[in-house]
Amino acid sequence: MSSASAPPAVEHLDVLIVGAGISGIGAARYLKTGLPSKSFAVLEARAASGGTWDLFRYPGVRSDSDLHTFGYEFAPWRDQESIASAPRILAYLRRTATENGLDPHIRYHHKVLSAAWSTERARWTVEIERTDTGERTTLTCAWLFCAMGYYRYDEGFTPRFEGRERFGGPIVHPQDWPEDLDHAGKRVLVIGSGATAVTLVPAMARTAAHVTMVQRTPTYIVPVPKRDPLANALRTCLGEERGHALTRRKNIAQQRAIWAFCRRCPKAARRIIRWINSRQLPEGYPVDEHFNPPYDPWDQRLCAVPDGDLFKAIKNGSASVVTDRIDTFTEKGVSLRSGRELEADIIVTATGLNVQAFGGIPMTVDGTPVHLPDHVAYKGMMLSGVPNFSFAIGYTNSSWTLKVGLLCEHFCRLLAHMDAHGYDVCRPEVADPAMETRPFLDFGAGYIRRVVDQLPRQGDRMPWLTSMSYHGDVKLMRADSVTDPELHFTRAVAARPEEAAR
Length: 502
Ligand SMILES: Cc1cc2nc3c(=O)[nH]c(=O)nc-3n(C[C@H](O)[C@H](O)[C@H](O)COP(=O)(O)OP(=O)(O)OC[C@H]3O[C@@H](n4cnc5c(N)ncnc54)[C@H](O)[C@@H]3O)c2cc1C
Description:
The chain has 14 helices and 25 strands. By secondary structure, the protein is of the alpha/beta class. It has two domains: 11-153 and 354-500, FAD/NAD(P)-binding domain (3-Layer(bba) Sandwich), CATH 3.50.50.60; 164-349, 3-Layer(bba) Sandwich (FAD/NAD(P)-binding domain), CATH 3.50.50.60.
C-alpha cells in the first residue's frame, strides 16, 4: 500500500492528563520530574489554564485555604498574603507551569468527549473536540489521568425560584458573572450562605448601596487572618523553600487539629465559634438566628472569612443577613415566607455548583459502559474494574491539593513499578463481592447529596476507603508499597503473541 493512501497515524501517548487546573498542572509536573521518559500531554477544554481560578470572575473571588497547603509542596508560595485572590492563584499556577517546562505539553481548546479502554490493545482511545474549530480528533494513551475537577463548567446550580421571571433587574449566578455588571450604588441580594456568598457579600458591599445575604440555613463562619505573620517571618529568616515547608507543616497540623477537635467535641467547637462570631458582630446582634447552624461543625465545610471581612461589613452597616425562606421573586425583589419583602436592583444566586465526576465523559471498558455507582474507588484515586485510569479528587476537610500531591506521587511510583516489571495493565478488583459500600464523598453538603447516587462508591476497608486524613495518606501513598493483592498487573495480550494465539 502506498503511503499516500495509508490512514493518518493516531497519536499515542504514555499518559494523557485531562484538565489544566491546579490538579492537572500538578500531575504533569510530578510526571515530568518523576518519569522524564514518559510521553504525555495535558488536554484542556478551555482557552486558558487554571480551571476554577480562571472560570470564576465574581467580585472578591479568593481561596479560603491558605496557599501554603493549597499550593504545591514543590513550589513555594511567595506572597505576603496566605489567603489569596483568584488572580494571584492563577499567576502562581501559570508561573509553576512555565518554570517546570509544562507549557508545551498543554493543549488548549481540547475537550475530551469520551474514552474507551481496550484490554487487548492495553490502551485508551480518546475522542476529542477542538472547542475553537469544532474539529474532532482521536488519540490513544496507555494511561488516562483525570484532573477535570468535580463540577460542571457549563452551568452552576440554581434551584427553581417561583416568579423568577417577574424580577425586573439582572439575576446573576457567580459561575457566569457578566463582565459589565456594575453594582456600585445598587441594592444587592445575595441568595446563599456558602463560601461564595460570604466572599461576595463584603466584596460587593464596598461599593453597593447595601448587600443583603438571604439564607435558608446558617453556615459556620470563622474569621482567618489573611496574612500569616509566622509564615512571612519564616520565609524571611529561612528562605522561600524552607519557610514554605515549615509553614506548610504548621498549617497541615493546624487544619487537622481544628477538624479533629470539631469532630470530637462538637458542642465545645460550636460554643467557641459562636463566641468568636459574637465578638466580631455588633452589640446585641442575633447571633443564633444567623450564625448558628442546625448541624455540627465540619458536618459541612466551614466557611472562612479573611480578617473577618463579612463581620466588618455587617458592623459598618453596608451588609446584613436575613435567615428566611424565599416564597417568590417579585417585580422589585423577593417575598419571604415570614411575609417580609426585600427590594433589590440585582439578585445574585450564590446557590452552588452542579457536581459531576470526571467531566461527565462517557467511558467504556472493552465495550461495556462504566456506570460509576457500580465502581468502588481504590485508594481514592482509581476505580475497580477500570484499568490504567486514575483521578485527582482532593480533600474536602482541608486543602484539596494536599491529597492531589500525594496521589500524584503514588501514581508515579505505580507507573515506575509497572515499567520495572514489564506490566502494561493495572486493574483494581474488589476481592470480596460482599464488601459493604458507601458514598465516595461522605459529606453532608447539599451539592454532594444531590448527586451522591451518580458518583462512584467507597468500601469499608483499605484499600477501598477514600481517606480524608493527610497523615494517613502520607503513609499509604508515599511510604507503603504500590502493590496490593487487589491490584492486578498484567501484560497486554497483543504484546504476547504466543498467549494471544492460545
Ligand atoms: C470559588 C471556589 C473556591 C474554592 N476555594 C478552595 C479553597 O480555598 N481550598 C480548597 O481546598 N478548595 C477550594 N475549592 C475547590 C477547588 O475547586 C479545588 O480545590 C481545585 O481548584 C480544583 O482543582 P482541579 O484542578 O482539580 O479542578 P478544576 O479547577 O475544576 O479544573 C478542572 C479543569 O479540567 C478542565 N476540563 C473539565 N472537563 C474537561 C474535558 N472534558 N476535557 C478537557 N478539559 C476538561 C476544565 O476546563 C478545568 O480547566 C474552591 C472551589 C471554588 C469553586
